[in-house]
């Protein structure tokens, strides 16, 4: 009984920690309105790095080409593809004068390193303002470039956007993928508004060429195969130079994985970069995850033993209600509000998967760029 008392008191502590995160950290995004920004049109280079992405380029590149924006170039980087990616790029380039191709061959020093290919693409771009997406992504509107780049200013040199995934009906995996993407976005948007930006996603990210070269590009983490997006943002972002774009016309949408095995591999790669974040960010993210994990572990333990179950039930409901209230508006803004019906289930499932990935990454290294 004494042990259960300790578990009960620990449960109260983690419940309070969770409430603080939702009310004072993530709550900022719930009541935040996208500020009106300057409509100044800047010359933009859209950069897409592709490795064996011929089919996706055929399907999604037209949505980038047809953007309603006065002056932009598209830099297509063929990263040593073994399919007909280069031929597809050349076909599009022959039809559109604003497409530039950078053909990258494997380098012994940087074999299979996406950061090397991206660096060559950035160097080849002609404009100061850079907008990044992936070959399997498409802007959801023809005003994507305008919505993202309008947040650039004399102070704001790095723009964090939202890259969601398309919906698949009656798919639990699809809901889980979208839920994880939603929660991750709420986290990095909220912390950016608090002046603690720590990551962004390469599916929808913008920064200036000056920012890239001032930081010596990816040199600080060039040996880390992944992290061309989040590790770079973690390195250069600060409270003064970072802005966020959550206007729906500024979103991109990607093809989600359709098998749990493929998604699990993808998340292993993504999560493996977090250990390279700045210490303060690692502490915050560890506190968020561990308090979530302990909350459910303690709650289930106390429920199954009927130890102070009335108080445990009340605190659990209080925490879940806060979650719904705080996540409702951001979910609506990011067009993912259908997921809230499954909130407790998806959260517990995701926590278990993240814990499994963490353990797997301790045992073996994940695979990286294709």
TrEMBL record:
- Glycosyltransferase 2-like domain residues are 45-177
Q: One GO molecular function term?
A: glycosyltransferase activity
Enzyme Commission number, as recorded: 2.4.-.-
Q: Glycosyltransferase among the record's keywords? A: yes
Report the Pfam families cross-referenced here.
Glycos_transf_2
- The record's top EC class is transferase
Keyword annotations for this protein, in alphabetical order, are:
Glycosyltransferase, Membrane, Transferase, Transmembrane, Transmembrane helix
Which top-level group of life is the source organism from?
A: Bacteria
Q: Where are the transmembrane segments?
A: 6-26, 283-303, 309-327, 339-359
The UniProt similarity line reads:
Belongs to the glycosyltransferase 2 family.
Which PANTHER family does the record associate with it? POLY-BETA-1,6-N-ACETYL-D-GLUCOSAMINE SYNTHASE (PTHR43630)
Q: What is the protein's name according to its record?
A: Glycosyltransferase
């Amino acid at each position: 009984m004494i042990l259960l008392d300790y578990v009960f008191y620990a449960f109260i502590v983690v419940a309070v920690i969770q409430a603080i995160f939702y009310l004072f950290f993530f709550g900022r995004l719930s009541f935040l309105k996208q500020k009106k920004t300057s409509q100044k049109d800047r010359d933009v280079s859209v950069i897409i790095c592709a490795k064996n992405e011929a089919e996706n380029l055929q399907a999604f590149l037209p949505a980038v080409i047809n953007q309603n924006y006065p002056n932009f170039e598209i830099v297509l980087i063929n990263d040593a593809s073994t399919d007909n990616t280069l031929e597809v790029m050349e076909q599009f380039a022959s039809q559109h004068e604003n497409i530039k191709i950078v053909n990258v061959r494997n380098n012994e020093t940087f074999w299979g390193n996406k950061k090397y290919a991206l660096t060559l693409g950035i160097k080849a771009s002609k404009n100061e303002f850079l907008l990044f997406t992936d070959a399997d992504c498409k802007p959801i509107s023809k005003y994507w470039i305008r919505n993202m780049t309008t947040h650039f200013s004399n102070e704001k040199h790095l723009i964090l956007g939202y890259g969601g995934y398309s919906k698949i009906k009656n798919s639990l995996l699809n809901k889980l993928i979208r839920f994880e993407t939603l929660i991750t976005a709420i986290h990095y948007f909220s912390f950016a508004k608090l002046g603690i930006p720590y990551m962004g996603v390469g599916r929808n990210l913008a920064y200036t060429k000056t920012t890239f070269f001032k930081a010596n590009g990816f040199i600080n983490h060039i040996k880390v195969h992944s992290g061309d997006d989040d590790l770079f943002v973690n390195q250069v972002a600060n409270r003064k130079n970072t802005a966020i774009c959550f206007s729906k016309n500024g979103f991109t949408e990607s093809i989600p994985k359709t098998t749990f095995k493929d998604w699990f591999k993808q998340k292993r790669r993504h999560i493996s970069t977090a250990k390279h974040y700045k210490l303060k960010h690692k502490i915050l993210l560890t506190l968020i995850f561990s308090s979530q994990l302990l909350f459910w572990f303690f709650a289930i333990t106390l429920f199954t033993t009927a130890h102070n179950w009335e108080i445990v039930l009340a605190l659990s409901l209080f925490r879940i209600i806060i979650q719904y209230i705080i996540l409702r508006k951001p979910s609506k803004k990011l067009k993912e509000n259908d997921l809230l019906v499954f909130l407790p289930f998806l959260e517990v499932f995701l926590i278990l998967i993240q814990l499994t990935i963490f353990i797997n990454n301790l045992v073996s290294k994940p695979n990286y760029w294709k």
